[in-house]
Amino acid sequence: PSWTASFESRALAPATPPLTSYLLRLMTIKKSNLCFSADVTTTSELLAVAEEVGQSICLLKTHADIISDFGDRTVRGLRDIAKRKGFLVFEDRKLGDIGSTVQRQYTSGPLSIAKWAEIVNAHIFPGPSIVTALASAASDAIAVYNTAVHTVITSGEPSSSDTDNDQDKPDPNKLTRTISVPSGEKKASIVNISTTIFTRTERISPQPTPFPSMSSASPDPLKDLKAKLGPAPYLRGLLLLAQMSSEGNLLDEAYTNKCLEVARENRNFVLGFVAQRSLNTLPDDNFLVMTPGVQLPKDSETGKVSGDGLGQQYNGPRHVVGELGCDIIIVGRGILNAKDRTAEAERYRKAGWEAYEERIGL
Ligand code: 5IU
């Protein structure tokens, strides 16, 4: 589909991968193409700001490695808010190493990204195997998750061979069945990092069906959202860094085209790009473009915000969404530094959504 097609029709196109489809549905129902970039340095700040802006966003972007006390509390808190307020999580880790290393960076260590973020991003400068390596790690994580969930649901009581069950009472929300995994150390380790996080309600859901839009008059829009969208599926996807917003960056046209080529070879795992314009050119391309470097002038001001003095270059939502065909605006300090972040997130949501509606001719 071309970028002038509606998000809804792109969600429902038969070849659209499930995570892309889910996100496009979420965006349509919430009327939000806003990703908030939560560049904060403590868990408390992250959870507080996620609560403040959650209602207005479709995606929350993290830099987990700048959170000084990142850990279980961060992950549980963020997943809880994401579930309640209805957004997906994107860890802006910018992976860029050989396949074997990025698999470990993605699934293990203190960040264990695959456990809690639906979306992660990577550079392709190491070559295309960075993508296939991550795709394979993600599908292992998904397989393990589904097997584990299935076991919890079907077996009810814990079995004696549970490896992580020394409490008296089993916690039904804990996936402790490493025994159910079809063996292999790698898989077992993914289960271990997952055990305290996944709950039964996050089971994978089938390809979504058409949906009505969310009524803005609803007394509880978030409850509405859940009823219409269904539970979030446990799926993982990758964004390729095809273009950057910073001055003098080295990602030239040839590099951007190479990203597109690699993405097309991995359509089920690569849901799109971090870029500055739409890259969809073939009829089959349904990649989402997420665009950082977006700011609105303050409410009291007019004109354009230019940069941050450290190389960042800003554009407005109308330009990137309406004229360049980007799908999702990524906004950090524009919202983070506002006095009333809830109101500011809502102002950005509206601006992003109006630019999108204009572009599709509404
Ligand atoms: N980010 C960019 N530009 C890029 C890429 C990522 O700004 O090209 I790739 C990140 C950096 C920061 C956020 O986390 O997006 C933008 O934050 P501000 O809206 O505060 O500038």
Automatic annotation (TrEMBL):
Q: What class of enzyme is it?
A: lyase
Residues annotated as coiled-coil are: none
What InterPro entries does its record include? Aldolase_TIM, OMPdecase, OMPdecase_AS, OMPdeCOase_dom, RibuloseP-bd_barrel
Its pathway, per UniProt, is: Pyrimidine metabolism; UMP biosynthesis via de novo pathway; UMP from orotate: step 2/2
The Orotidine 5'-phosphate decarboxylase domain extends over 33-348
Q: Which CDD domains match?
A: OMP_decarboxylase_like (cd04725)
Query: What are the GO BP annotations of this UniProt entry?
Result: 'de novo' pyrimidine nucleobase biosynthetic process; 'de novo' UMP biosynthetic process
* Entry keyword annotation includes Transport: no
Signal sequence range:
none
Q: Which UniProt keywords apply?
A: Decarboxylase, Lyase, Pyrimidine biosynthesis
Where are the catalytic residues? 92 (for ompdecase activity), 94 (for ompdecase activity), 97 (for ompdecase activity)
Q: Which domain of life is it from?
A: Eukaryota
Instruction: Tell me yes or no: is Lyase among this UniProt entry's keywords.
Output: yes
Which SMART domains does the UniProt entry name for this protein? OMPdecase (SM00934)
Q: Which reaction does it catalyse?
A: orotidine 5'-phosphate + H(+) = UMP + CO2
What EC designation does it have? Answer: 4.1.1.23
Binding positions (substrate): 39, 61, 245, 312, 332-333
Annotated Gene Ontology cellular components are: cytosol
Q: Which intervals of the chain are annotated as region Disordered? A: 154-181
Example GO molecular function? orotidine-5'-phosphate decarboxylase activity
Q: Which family is it part of?
A: Belongs to the OMP decarboxylase family.
What PANTHER family has UniProt attached to this entry?
A: OROTIDINE 5'-PHOSPHATE DECARBOXYLASE
- NCBIfam families xref list: pyrF (TIGR01740)
The name under which this protein is listed is Orotidine 5'-phosphate decarboxylase
What is the organism lineage in this UniProt record?
Answer: Eukaryota, Fungi, Dikarya, Ascomycota, Pezizomycotina
